[in-house]
Amino acid sequence: MVNRKELDPEKSPSARFGQRLRMLRDERGWTQDDLAERMGYSGTHISAVETGRRPPTPHFANSADRAFGTGDTFERQGRAARNSALLEGFPEFVAQEVRATEIRLFEVGIIPGLLQTPEYAGAIAAGAVRRGAITEQQAEERLTLLAKRQASLERTPAPRIYAVLDEGCLRRTVGGPDVMTAQLDRLADFADLPSTVFQVAPFDLGERRSFDLPVTLLTLPDWSHIAYSESAQQGQLERDMRFVQPLLTAYHQLQAEAASQSASVALIQQLRKGTP
């Protein structure tokens, strides 16, 4: 089949659900529209669930079990997908991130995942477990996916990465002094790479800071752009350039206002030595 997207069932519970849905559909020789008719959905909806772009609702999972005669198999898989620690929309974003030729990051309060050391990431996940926000299994899911995302940056050619971090990201201690020292060293190493630009948005930027919330902007191989942002409950992937273009403009304005890379690295060194 032309342009058929490969599925990775190890990526997330939603991906495993989608892979099983496609496998059983293929075994029966059904098209997506054939399955949609049996389940009471559209072919577009079936495609979105198979590729992980839309999570399976309880009604969808039950309808799939009835269509395939699989008892409660899809109902149980759907429950696991909904209990994932990954926000809705995030797996789709990751699928685009690993293709991006340019990645622009802005973060508030925490080092972005792509730049985290394993110890820093582990401390963040452990804190969420202690608060009861996620389970230990969900924490492991997050850390496994993060390691895969970081490994993908080593592809050839490497993506160009622009990172602007609010000053609070550097000053907020996570995991204790040793973990934070190693994390600051990691940022300094990142800034030294030939394919990166690193800047800090200082506190005194005040109202001139373009964003109040984290945002990631991706440039894809065909030069199209995608924006990704998160609320507490959901990730949002935006492709419409009517909405993405203003974010790109705001990001360029932020880079112009933020500290230079040399000044940003100097701040890292000051914090690394324990000076204010």
TrEMBL record:
Superkingdom: Bacteria
Stretch list, region Disordered: 48-71
SMART domains, alphabetized: HTH_XRE
Span of domain HTH cro/C1-type: 21-74
Cross-referenced SUPFAM superfamilies: lambda repressor-like DNA-binding domains
Pfam families per record: DUF5753, HTH_31
UniProt protein name: Helix-turn-helix domain-containing protein
Taxonomic source organism: Streptomyces physcomitrii
